[in-house]
Amino acid sequence: MSIKHDLMYPFGNPLTDTFTDARITALNNILNLAKERVWIADGRPGGIQYSEFDDMLTQHDIDTSQESIEIVEQFLAHVRGFKNA
């Protein structure tokens, strides 16, 4: 690490532990679910930016979505606990 990094985070960077790869992936999944929900509510407009969206979710999509929701809920509880400490 650099001297600047060591001076800024003498006890380690708290964001490294907070934003794990699993949490970032879960946040991205939830964001995509929200975008897809808006797409459905907006009448399913066409366009290249909507090419990944679909009306139906497979069982794998549902399981992944539920897991992402749980991870994001735990993450938000962690952040709230850190903020209130």
CA distance, first residue to last residue = 28 Å
Strand content: under 5%
Helices, by number, come to 4
What general form does the structure show? elongated
Secondary-structure map with pairings?
Blueprint: H1 3-8, H2 14-18, H3 21-41, H4 59-84
Helix pairs in contact: 3-4
Structure notes:
The protein is built from four helices and no strands. The chain has 85 residues and is mainly α. The chain has one domain. The longest helix has 26 residues, at 59-84. The chain is elongated, with a radius of gyration of 18 Å. The model has no long low-confidence stretch (mean pLDDT 85).
Characteristic terms for this protein:
single chain, 85 residues, mainly alpha, 4 helices, 0% strand
Quick take:
The protein has 85 residues and is an all-alpha fold. The chain is built from 4 helices and no strands. The relative contact order is 0.13.
